[in-house]
From TrEMBL:
Its main location: membrane. The chain crosses the membrane at residues 125-144, 156-178. It comes from the Bacteria. This is CDP-alcohol phosphatidyltransferase family protein.
């Protein structure tokens, strides 16, 4: 029987793949201003994000592929929402710049770690919290772009999540930087910059 870590066809992986397939549909819904459907799809993606983690542990179906697909789906939804809301002028350019800059920074940090032989860093709780804040923020901001009392409340709450999420996103980047420095400093001086991946 194939080891759990190497399995591909698992229920959690299927949920993650379904979330990935939904990204272009969600992006089209946002740009075409089908907001109710876009919010519904984003909520469904959020529920499946929670479910695949719970199922992976409950069914003992944690896999290497799952650890890649899950954060990738989260990032793509955040990016798609961010671009769509920026194009529609619901989200200001400076917030987009802050979040994109963080992704560029983390890409560089992970490339540096790859050079030294590590294939990534364990997901930190702060990073997960940041992602969840942003996944809550964007549908609320989308809802808040409409008229009415409920929309006004959604806009206020959405901005609270967006500000906290962005701050936590950068704080998580700082924590990942500390982890990366600790890993690199643990290398022996004569290792020539390359260590075996854990």
């Amino acid at each position: 029987m194939q080891p759990t870590q190497d399995r591909i066809w698992t229920v959690p992986n299927a949920l993650s793949l379904a979330r990935l397939v939904g990204v272009p549909l969600f992006f089209w819904l946002v740009l075409s201003e089908h907001d109710a459907w876009a919010i519904g799809l984003l909520m469904l993606a959020g529920i499946s994000d929670w479910a695949d983690g719970k199922l992976a542990r409950a069914l003992n179906q944690t896999s290497r592929l799952g650890t890649l697909l899950d954060p990738l789906a989260d990032r793509l939804y955040i990016f798609a929402t961010l671009v769509g809301l920026t194009v529609r002028e619901i989200v200001p350019w400076w917030l987009t710049a802050l979040l994109v800059a963080r992704e560029v920074y983390m890409t560089g940090l992970l490339a540096l770690l790859k050079h030294f032989g590590w294939n990534g860093l364990p997901v930190h709780l702060v990073g997960k919290a940041a992602t969840m804040n942003l996944l809550y923020a964007f549908p609320l901001l989308l809802w808040g772009s409409h008229d009415g009392t409920v929309a006004t409340v959604a806009r206020v709450v959405g901005w609270a999540f967006a500000i906290w999420g962005t701050a936590l996103y950068w704080y998580a980047a700082a924590l990942y930087t500390v982890q990366a420095r600790q890993l690199i400093s643990s290398l022996p001086p004569d290792s020539k910059g390359v260590a075996p991946a854990p």
